[in-house]
Specification:
Layout (H helix, E strand, L loop, with lengths): L1 H13 L8 H23 L2 H17 L9 H23 L7 H4 L7 H11 L3 H12 L4 H8 L3 H25 L1
Helix pairs in contact: 2-3, 2-4, 3-4, 4-8, 6-9, 7-9, 8-9
Length: about 180
């Protein structure tokens, strides 16, 4: 019995200590990343209210896990949490309603017509959810492949493949639109 206790003490001492995030570090995290998380989610779901809800849920989850998340890992944790919450919301919405029954004005956040924005949105709509997410994380938010892998739960090679294929779809679509214009 004494041997087990000493082994437990030794193991406990050998485990790396997690530095608990302070309230100040949490507030700094909110200031630094809330706009970035919001933009990323908004670009994917195109609904400002839902994007705000997802961001708020993500920060709430971070606060609930404040003792488990290190301050220097908070950015990755936030984007991962927001991404997964967004995917859950998209799946839930697919099961619930029919968008054909809703007028465009009720879910559109853009009031003015912008041809280029419409073309880009149409191009992004051609992508699968995962392709759109990884392209947005890479090209719009500026994350590197490893960070995208952490956020989405994909391997490095999967991230590269999804980005390559998404860019190919975007290029083919945009070139075909150019020929029409």
């Amino acid at each position: 019995m004494k041997l087990c206790v000493s082994l437990l003490k030794t193991r406990h001492n050998c485990l790396p200590r997690i530095k608990i995030m302070t309230v100040k570090e949490y507030n700094t995290t909110v200031e630094l990343y809330s706009d970035n998380v919001f933009r990323f989610i908004l670009k994917n779901i195109r609904d400002e209210e839902k994007a705000k809800d997802i961001v708020q849920d993500s920060f709430l989850k971070l606060w609930q896990k404040v003792e488990e998340v290190e301050a220097d890992k908070s950015k990755s944790y936030l984007f991962t949490t927001a991404y997964r919450t967004m995917i859950d919301l998209i799946r839930r919405d697919k099961k619930q309603g029919n968008w054909d029954e809703v007028s465009e004005q009720s879910y559109s956040h853009q009031e003015q017509y912008n041809g280029l924005n419409e073309v880009l949105q149409a191009a992004l709509a051609k992508l699968s959810e995962i392709q759109r997410s990884v392209v947005m994380l890479r090209d719009y938010e500026g994350y590197d492949y490893n960070e995208i892998g952490e956020i989405t739960g994909l391997s490095l090679s999967q991230v590269k493949v999804y980005i390559f294929r998404a860019r190919k779809v975007l290029k083919d679509f945009l070139v075909s639109v150019e020929a029409v214009l």
